[in-house]
Design a protein that fits this description.
Length: about 350
């Protein structure tokens, strides 16, 4: 995974920081939700607070929006507003660990999209990994008991899984093309756009923000509400997004996605210690299967289709390229193919004058 590249070492380090930072978001948010704030208002607080903190960076990189508006709007809608709204709605109805484990079905879901919608080949390892992850999900929600967890909460978590795919695809796409965008700009504008969208949807002026001046209860302990709110904004959002987006651009979506699986472990452990949410044996075993399946799906080698155009697939952020190994194409491979094509053109140009000289003689 690391090789000897300092850039990949930095990327792995940042991915680990991001996974640990993201892992605490649900644990910090749930006491605020239980204190009376709605999940959507907590999401608005998280995203808007982070957007305000990063506003100077957004202004500094304001030209990025003119160069790649579609990318930044998409990141704000999916990777910020979509993921956070669905995830926080899920944890208001089901345990934090369960919600996050379901969210990490994103890679297998993308594999299914590639195989059955785009009708592109996928590797056997990716298919097996997706199957293992789905089996793990069945254990997590205990389907044999008629879905022991709230069905709507599970659907919200699945919505977060779908939006999570956009996080990795769009974060990676920002570094590609003729007009790359600084990862700091991706994070800053993504949070700013997500904040605007959530302001329209959640109408935060209707919330009772006086609750932030009171106390909340976390696993039987009372603490100021501002403490988890500040952690949620500064650590679980600002730090998590900045390090996460930079990590994806230093590594690749598949590798960054593998490291990000640690977020589910961190969230489950924190929810256990700080919220008293205990998972039973079936949920624990199922969670391990989800993580193992997601790892296998992301770490497997791509399947090559006969006659496929790798360069074209890699340039399409809506394809599996840059999102799952089944369609992912590394930047180095694309550069190598471009260099090889250029060399062929040079050889053809060198041979053409020689052939004309022979005909002249």
């Amino acid at each position: 995974m690391l090789g000897r590249s300092p850039g990949r070492t930095l990327g792995l380090t940042l991915a680990l920081v991001s996974a640990f930072a993201f892992g605490g978001s649900g644990t910090a948010a749930k006491p605020l939700i239980e204190a009376g704030l709605s999940p959507l208002h907590v999401v608005w607080l998280r995203v808007t607070g982070a957007a305000v903190v990063l506003l100077p960076l957004a202004y500094r990189h304001r030209d990025a929006f003119l160069r790649r508006p579609g990318l930044l709007i998409g990141f704000g809608l999916l990777a910020v507003a979509g993921v956070q709204a669905c995830y926080f709605a899920a944890i208001s109805r089901i345990p934090v660990g369960v919600a996050l484990l379901i969210e990490y079905l994103g890679p297998p879901l993308l594999i299914g999209y590639v195989r059955f919608v785009q009708r592109r080949p996928i590797s056997r390892g990716a298919a097996i990994g997706a199957g293992v992850a789905v089996t793990g999900l069945a254990c997590v929600v205990e389907v044999w008991n008629g879905l022991s967890f709230d069905a709507l909460g599970v659907l919200f978590a699945l919505g977060a899984a779908c939006c999570q795919v956009g996080y990795f695809v769009l974060a990676d796409a920002g570094s590609r093309g003729e007009r790359p965008v600084d990862p700091i700009a991706v994070s800053a504008f993504g949070l700013l756009i997500g904040s605007i969208v959530l302001t329209v949807l959640t109408r935060p002026w209707e919330a009772d923000w006086s609750r932030l001046g009171g106390d909340v209860v976390m696993n039987g302990h009372t603490l100021p509400a501002l403490l988890p709110a500040a952690w949620m904004v500064l650590i679980a959002t600002v730090l998590a997004y900045l390090t996460g987006v930079v990590a994806v651009q230093h590594l690749s979506p598949p590798v960054a996605g593998v490291v990000a699986n640690l977020e589910a472990v961190v969230a489950t452990v924190l929810a256990w210690v700080l919220l008293g949410e205990h998972l039973g044996l079936p949920q624990t075993a199922g969670g391990l299967l989800v993580l193992a399946g997601a790892f296998a799906a992301q770490a497997s080698k791509p399947a090559k289709a006969a006659g496929a155009d790798p360069a074209g697939a890699a340039g399409n952020p809506g394809s599996a390229a840059g999102a799952v190994p089944a369609g992912a194409t590394a930047l180095g491979d694309r550069l190598a193919r471009a260099a090889e094509a250029e060399a062929r053109r040079d050889r053809n140009q060198d041979r053409e004058p020689e052939g004309e000289r022979r005909q002249g003689r």
